[in-house]
Amino acid sequence: MEYRRLGKSGLQVSVLSFGSWLTFGKQIEDGTAERLMAIAYERGVNFFDNAEIYARGQSEIVMGKILKKMNWERSSWLVSSKVYWGDGGKKPNQTGLSRKHVFEACHAALRRLQVDYLDLYFCHRPDKNTPVEETVWAMNHLITQGKILYWGTSEWSAQEIMEAHMVARQNHLIGPVMEQPQYNMFHRDKVEVEFSQIYKTVGLGTTIWSPLASGTLTDKYLDKFPNDTRLSIEGLEWLRERNLTPAHIEKVRALHGLAKDMGTTLPKLAIAWCVQNPNVSTAILGASKPEQLEETLESLELVPMLTPEVNERIEGILDNKPVAPAL
Fold first, then answer.
1. For residue 1, how many C-alpha atoms fall within 13 Å in the half-sphere facing its CB?
2. What's the count of helices (H) and strands (E) in the chain, helices before strands?
3. Is the CB of residue 221 less than 8 Å from the CB of residue 252?
4. What's the Cα-to-Cα distance from 107 to each of 23, 88, 118, rounded to whole Å?
5. CA angle 52, 56, 58 (to 5 degrees)
6. What residues contact 86, with CB distance under 8 A and at least 6 apart?
7. Residues belonging to the active site
8. Which of 42, 102, 251, 311 is disulfide-compatible with 138, CB 3.0–4.6 A?
9. Beta bridge partners of 284
10. 186-231 per-position pLDDT tens digit
């Protein structure tokens, strides 16, 4: 396993990490979840990603029980939660980034995960109804109380991230260290263009999600549609419609052929392609079966094979290279 600093912080995070979205407490049995976490940890993964909304809190409960049972040294792993959507409650103050919800969600995550502190705490979305000053102060208070170590954002714009940094700087507070954006072969603009300056200015770290475009960048959708995947889960029609387009499937066929020519698999190629980007601190892997995770954890072996020629072939297939605006 390779480890990278999370932005400008001193925190070392494994380049491949493991997340529980759509799987823990929902798609898979708890015993399978335990096996997956054990495989990840044994292979050097040190970051486990979670959120209050995942399975409405059940995902954190499952992960917390596993972490307690495994009894790994607390200094050897990182765990996250995210605040914004709530854990199912719809009443005022049960969602968003107000000081009240940020504090209560943090305490609830600590209980569910059975930990004394969260290593990483993310604002899961920007909140137009809460002043950014309030959220930055709330996160800073949690840090000074020892309940979280680093805070960050997820799916915020570069402008929103920089507003948070401006507030932090003006008030001598701790600003966001990391952002969790979607990044894969089909979803590139934010990581490759929009954030290009803030990597340099504030040292933004990234914990990217969906490196396989929710399983689209595999061979499972090339023929008939399988019934046991995340894109077949009820309520995820929006995800299926966004990813399984005819244009995407056509590109996936060509990428599958390229991976075969290289003697590897498309999932490994797609993940290696993501982490070759030095601005990716870690790529969060998801899996519902041990064999899937064992395969994708081998992706780093492929990075040296991504020569300029191979990357050129990939760009030719994708035909979606983001263009930076003229300065």
1. 23
2. 12, 10
3. yes
4. 23, 16, 10
5. 90
6. 52, 53, 94, 95, 101, 105
7. 54
8. 102
9. 17
10. 999 999 999 999 999 999 999 999 999 988 999 877 766 556 565 6
Phi/psi for 41 (5° steps) reads -65, -40
CA dist., res. 262 & res. 105, Å (int)? 46
DSSP 170-209: HTT-----EE--B-BTTB-HIIIIITTTHHHHT--EEEEB
Lookup result for tokens 């714009």: 157
Please tell me the distance from the alpha carbon of residue 156 to that of residue 256, in angstroms, as a whole number: 32
Distance in angstroms (rounded) separating the CA atoms of residues 266 and 254: 10
Q: How far, in Å, CA of 168 to CA of 173, rounded? A: 4
Per-domain boundaries in the chain: 3-215+271-306
Residues in the chain, how many? 327
* Pair 85, 124: CB distance under 8 Å: yes
Residue-wise pLDDT for 140-196, tens only, equals 999 999 999 999 999 999 999 999 999 999 999 999 999 999 999 999 999 999 999
How is residue 314 written in tokens?
């990939």
* Distance, CA of 112 to CA of 288 (rounded, Å): 21
DSSP 277: S
Q: Is residue 289 classed exposed, middle or buried when 0-12, 13-18 and 19+ CB atoms within 10 A define those classes?
A: middle
What's the token pair of residue 46?
Answer: 């040190």
Per CATH, the number for 3-215+271-306 is: 3.20.20.100
CA dihedral of 233, 234, 236, 241, whole degrees rounded to 10:
90
